[in-house]
Write a structure and sequence with these properties.
The chain has 203 residues and is mostly helical. The protein has a domain of 71 residues: Winged helix-like DNA-binding domain superfamily/Winged helix DNA-binding domain (Arc Repressor Mutant, subunit A), CATH 1.10.10.10. 67% of the residues lie in helices and 5% in strands. The chain has 11 helices and 2 strands. Helix 3 packs across helix 7.
């Protein structure tokens, strides 16, 4: 099998990417894959629940944090609805409604009337729910602060803005797809050819 680095250089060579870009893409791909696996296991959240002795499951914690999302992730009025919670959890609204009902029944959340539109129902954390999210968030902040305390001020000043910038890159992926339509088409054709039986490909 062709080494990943050689394959990557071949793909990116079609658009004239320099060696530094190729190296950055390869390293970032490896880092983000590792990060994704850790995030999918909710490693830090699970440790927080365990170390803090919280009587809550990880799936419930995910819902509470979806409800407790910071203002820039909520609507213009800063209120949460079942719809916005569904978007954050990447699930359909009907399932989100059932999950929210479970949280309400467990005393972690409550439904309320929107201050912006009395016809709309919003979802808020109760004191019990807020105590859980605050505790888990505080644990995470302690762990991160302990780790970053070993970094220099210059490293922190460079890293955080660059990470924020990188985290926004997917917003521009449609524009990249348009610019690289020819290359993407070639990749698709190659993948389709690999799906064909050997005798068809050798014909």
């Amino acid at each position: 099998m062709e080494p990943k680095s050689d394959h990557l250089e071949a793909v990116l060579g079609r658009i004239g990417a320099n060696p530094q870009v190729v190296d950055a893409v390869m390293r970032l791909d490896a880092v983000t894959q590792h990060w994704r696996r850790q995030m999918s296991k909710r490693a830090l959240g699970r440790r927080a629940v365990e170390k803090l002795g919280l009587p809550i499951e990880q799936s419930q914690l995910d819902v509470l944090f979806a409800i407790a999302s910071p203002p820039h992730e909520t609507g213009a009025d800063g209120e949460n609805t079942v719809g916005t919670i569904a978007e954050r959890l990447l699930i359909d609204p009907s399932r989100a409604s059932r999950i929210v009902s479970d949280m309400v029944n467990a005393g972690y959340a409550r439904r309320a009337v929107s201050q912006a539109d009395a016809r709309r129902t919003i979802v808020e954390l109760t004191d019990k729910g807020r105590a859980v999210t605050d505790a888990v968030r505080s644990y995470k902040w302690l762990m991160m602060a302990d780790y970053f305390s070993g970094w220099s001020e210059d490293d922190l000043a460079a890293f955080v803005p660059l990470l924020e910038r990188y985290s926004d890159w997917f917003r521009d992926v449609a524009a990249s797809e348009e610019r690289l339509a020819r290359e993407i088409s070639a990749i698709a054709e190659s993948a389709a050819a690999a799906e064909k039986p050997d005798e068809v490909r050798s014909a």
